[in-house]
Amino acid sequence: MTTGHVFIATSLDGFVARQDHSLDWLLKQPDAEDDDGGFAAFMDSVDGLVMGSGSFRTVLGFGQWAYTKPVIVLSSSLTGQDIPEELKDKVRLSSAAPADLMQELQEEGWTRAYVDGGRMVQSFLRQGLIADLTITTVPILIGSGIPLFGSLDRDIDLQVDSSRILPTGMIQTTFRVA
How many other β-carbons are positioned within 10 Å of the β-carbon of residue 35? Predict the structure, then answer.
């Protein structure tokens, strides 16, 4: 089956966004001119993205569409009218359960899907659909927001593949799901 892969930033206290999905705390972090933290290589390794409606709305707010790969928005609340006309050939909606979606993607020839957004990561991780997570920890405490990890009904064992300090001072760790 298609495997899920995560590449995400969190505050030191474990939040991927504020409650309103704002990323202002992340966007004000210093840029390292020659180091994207491996994001371009990661994007080259996946067939497309799966995100929730909150992440989709946040990305739309950035103005210019950032992705060249196909994007699937898992949502039961969005409709076709919520997709801007210029993105209709790049973004599609799905209300499928995560495992069903991954099976559909497998049938479409996908092998690796980038799973983005706190609630999406939680859902896919709980269902055993995530193979690895690259988490970049930003040295900031924001106090509350959307956590990367929520409650679990069982332990999920992870193995550290690598960890490094980025030129920006952020710490990036890649975990494999055991």
Answer: 11
